[in-house]
Write a structure and sequence with these properties.
single chain, alpha+beta, globular, binds flavin-adenine dinucleotide
Length: about 150
């Protein structure tokens, strides 16, 4: 099994898309992530996986808190901006529980870091959800490297 085959296999798992947001030293930073899962109901815990070399890793280690914003099907541009695929765009963040959130997301979760684990070239952050907001709408989805089952020619 080489890296390419592993990536191809993992891409067969259809997911939603989130933007993780956090703020350290007055700098608001966002990062697109689909490695997100619900972990526990009591206490209410979720998990995200962040590349060790990602700027977001440093931001969360400093802030010790972050938000997870589950994107709607109208927010593909947000996913592309925070994955570095669309450059130099100004994004206006809302504030929720004193943390930055992406406006009009399906769900925004405000989390404190509950635990963290090193896992190879990523850091796993378990977040304790301190509050959340929910809106109606359809999700942005990601499968085989494409959004919402788009066909590429
Ligand atoms: P950068 O690469 O510096 O920032 C990312 C982009 O966001 C840059 O273009 C930056 O300009 C922009 N940005 C950040 N903050 C702001 C702001 N305040 N205003 C405007 N623009 C801003 N990586 C993972 O580690 N885990 C995952 O689960 C994961 N899932 C992914 C899922 C999808 C669908 C995609 C497309 C990518 C995923 N990635 C994931 C890759 C990750 O999104 C990119 O590698 C990202 O560039 C890493 O971000 P960074 O924190 O290193 O910061």
């Amino acid at each position: 099994m080489d890296d390419r085959m592993f990536r191809t296999a993992m891409g067969k798992f259809a997911t939603g898309v989130t933007v993780i947001a956090s703020e350290a030293n007055g700098d608001v930073h966002g990062m697109t992530a689909n490695a997100f899962m619900s972990v526990s109901l009591d206490p209410k815990l979720i998990l995200i996986s962040v590349g060790k070399n990602a700027k977001m890793n440093q931001t969360i280690q400093e802030a010790r808190k972050f938000t997870v914003n589950i994107l709607s099907d109208a927010q593909q541009e947000m996913s592309m901006i925070f994955a570095g695929q669309l450059k130099d765009r100004d994004v206006a963040f809302d504030t929720f529980e004193g943390m930055p959130v992406i406006e009009n997301s399906l769900v925004s979760l405000a989390c404190n870091v509950y635990d963290s684990h090193e896992a190879g070239d990523h850091m796993l952050y378990i977040g304790e959800v301190v509050n959340l907001s929910v809106q109606d709408g359809e999700p942005l989805t990601f499968f085989e490297g494409k959004y919402n089952n788009q066909v590429t020619s």
